[in-house]
Design brief:
By secondary structure, the chain is mainly alpha-helical. Helix content is 76%, strand content 4%. The chain has a 5-stranded parallel β-sheet with strand order 2-3-1-4-5, with helices on both faces. Helix 10 (275-311) runs parallel beside helix 13.
Length: 665
């Protein structure tokens, strides 16, 4: 750990970016090319109608991917959390149940797709001319859904088990096999779209087999019959942990469905017809995905560099890394812009030939829909940057702004006014608006970084304490907001002559996780909707769970070493199996909590009451999420006390007397 921290904090930024980003770029490019290879060979072997058919079937694959990632990322998070608690059997149950539910849902989705394929294709914008190809391709692809889903679920779990290279290897082998089989089945055996579908599911089967083989040699757990026994409560927990990945993927399904239907409707009113726009824009989006994969790979690879140096208050290095990432991303997006504007006919020709209208619309789509693709060089890195430094709210806004907030409304509004050109124009409108928001947030953040750098002051606090306890004892303090519980904890520590651990955790966690102290302070004992949605958007980054795991480790570490008082952070649950822990809960009535909040925090009476209710709800959600218990249930604690009865100082004295009478010999 120490060596890695030194590298992130001292090594040249450029060298670090190369080290961390190149593997990310390769992995993402392989994933992007997996989807594009089929289209290239189908375009040459079948024609543009075959490509159009794959585009209307693609949302079905994305739905399956959404479920696979929910169970895979959810199981991965459950695995990490339970291993952090030293509960290997529970960790194995989470993984086992995640795999089982993935198997069940994959079979259900396979059956639904095979039975209702014609109706589903209609939802995703299929036209009469595309229907035959789409049905032939879709029926075979649907058969492979279980292999794809289970393989993807296992991929996430294998990475979390500490074998990212194995996970990447199984995926790369599948992609290579798909590339080899496509031309053989399409051109040699003249199997058309069916050949492409068979090549795809056979490749997915190989990845599936390799990942299933890995389950017999997990590093951190062992899958037993008990581990794979279905348990509803574990299913719910796994799904909750992976819901952000599901939401992200399903948002893309929603976008593609609306876009395809708009293209079919307004294309029919133009000289291009419905099929050409659906085919061409599907190809254009997948080509642009290559651009986005490179940019995203650079930025995701730089995420630990951003996070560590921000947490270590090395703001000059944060700015330097941000400058390099933005520079590289803008260069790449500029090159892509030049290619899209100057040789769109050459790019579309990679995917086969078409008539005059096909080529004309392809050039129009590249030059219009991707007119502001250069903005991706700012917008994409900004979202990852804010996630890396713990600004989950800003990151979530940037993550979802282009697709959900701007693109869908732009398609609907501009399409109704300008027809097919309006649909194409929705692309640059969404890119421009998302870019505008990203620039505003970035400028403000850079200014804040400069201020933080100027005000940076490292204070080392040393305390000489006179421990009055004859035994090693840990006191955990849980408290309602405004009850004075934090101050009660401070007084108890002072009176007993032991160390108080409260904000001291924030600095240590920031140093070890790379998360900012601001983020930790605002999120460590709360869970909000934006954080939940944002987790997983950028390839499974999940700061909330990482934070809980790291704090749990630190809490156990200090509890092993010395007597102390620990405020909040689910410490009562984390240390529940120890007999030297006294768990205290401090509460108060609303009137007195409002009075303290107005006096201490300067809030108005109305705002104070709302803030008290809001923070207590967030704490309760956080506690329930990680402990599966009710935060304010008094049976969880050894001492529950109303601080109003005696006042904060007398409350602390009474608790000290109770503790001393129990532990002092």
């Amino acid at each position: 750990m120490e060596k890695e921290e030194n590298i992130l904090g001292k090594e040249k930024i450029g060298k670090l970016i190369r080290k961390f980003s190149i593997p990310c770029i390769i992995s993402l490019l392989v994933n992007s090319l997996y989807n594009i290879v089929d289209q290239i060979f189908i375009g040459w072997g079948v024609g543009y109608l075959g490509n159009g058919a794959t585009n209307v079937v693609f949302p079905l694959t994305m739905i399956c991917l959404a479920f696979a990632l929910m169970f895979g990322d959810g199981s991965s998070a459950y695995l990490s959390l339970k291993l952090g608690e030293k509960k290997k059997e529970d960790a194995a149950k989470g993984v086992g149940n995640g795999i089982i539910i993935s198997v069940i849902i994959s079979i259900i989705l396979c059956a639904i797709s095979l039975i209702f394929l014609p109706q589903l294709l209609n939802i995703f914008g299929c036209t009469d001319a595309l229907r035959e190809y789409a049905l032939r391709y879709g029926r075979i692809i649907s058969i492979g859904f279980p292999f794809m889903m289970i393989g993807t679920t296992l991929n996430s779990i294998i990475r979390a088990d500490g074998s990212p290279k194995y996970s990447m290897m199984s995926m790369v082998l599948g992609a290579i096999l798909n590339t080899i089989l496509d031309p053989i089945l399409i051109f040699v055996f003249n199997m058309g779209v069916e050949g492409a579908a068979i090549a795809t599911i056979f490749s997915q089967f190989i990845t599936f087999v390799l990942n299933v083989i890995y389950t017999k040699k997990f590093k951190s757990i062992k899958l037993t019959k008990e581990a794979i026994t279905p348990k509803i409560n574990i299913y719910k927990k796994v799904a909750a942990l992976g819901i952000s990945s599901f939401i992200t993927q399903m948002s893309f399904v929603f976008v593609v469905a609306i876009e395809n239907n708009a293209l079919a409707k307004y294309g029919l009113e133009s000289k291009y017809g419905s099929e050409v726009p659906i085919t061409v824009l599907g190809i254009v989006m997948k080509i642009s995905q290559i651009l986005n994969s490179i940019i995203l790979g650079i930025t995701v690879g730089t995420q630990p560099i951003f996070g560590y140096n921000y947490g270590a208050k090395k703001f000059d290095r944060v700015k330097q890394a941000l400058k390099i990432v933005l520079g590289l991303s803008v260069i790449i997006s500029t090159i892509a812009f030049i290619l899209f504007q100057t040789i769109p006919d050459k790019l579309i020709s990679i995917f086969g030939s078409g008539d005059e209208n096909y080529m004309e619309f392809a050039c129009l789509a590249f030059r219009t829909y991707l007119l502001l693709c250069i903005c991706n060089g700012i917008q994409i890195p900004s979202g990852v940057f804010f996630q890396a430094i713990g600004k989950s709210g800003k990151s979530a806004i940037l993550s979802l702004s282009r697709q959900i907030l701007f693109l869908i409304p732009a398609i609907l509004i501009l399409g109704s006014i300008y027809g097919i050109m309006g649909v194409l124009s929705a692309g640059p409108v969404a890119d421009g608006l998302a870019f505008f928001i990203a620039v505003i947030l970035l400028i403000k953040e850079v200014k804040d970084l400069k201020e933080c750098e100027n005000k940076k002051n490292i204070v080392e606090e040393s305390e000489t304490l006179n421990n009055q306890l004859d035994r090693h004892i840990i006191i955990t303090i849980s408290r309602e907001y405004g009850s004075g519980g934090r101050y009660v904890g401070r007084l108890i520590a002072d009176k007993l002559g032991i160390k108080l651990y409260d904000k001291e955790f924030i600095t240590r966690v920031a140093e070890e996780t790379g998360l900012s102290e601001e983020y930790i302070e605002n999120n460590e004992q709360k869970r909000d909707i934006l954080s939940a949605i944002n987790n997983g958007y950028y390839f499974g980054l999940n700061n909330s769970d990482e934070l809980f795991i790291k704090e749990s480790e630190l809490i156990k570490e200090v509890a092993d070493k010395e007597s102390c008082v620990i405020v909040g952070r689910c410490a009562d649950f984390i240390l529940q199996d120890r007999d030297n822990v006294i768990k205290v809960f401090v509460y108060s009535n609303m009137e007195n909590k409002i009075k303290r909040a107005t006096q201490i925090y300067g809030l108005s009476t109305n705002k104070a009451e709302k803030e008290i209710k809001r923070i207590d709800k967030l704490r309760a959600n956080h506690y329930k999420y990680y402990t599966e218990k009710e935060w304010n249930n008094h049976s969880n604690y050894d001492i529950c006390i109303n601080s109003d009865k005696l006042g904060v100082e007398k409350t602390a004295e009474l608790i000290c007397e109770m503790i001393k009478s129990k532990v002092v010999v």
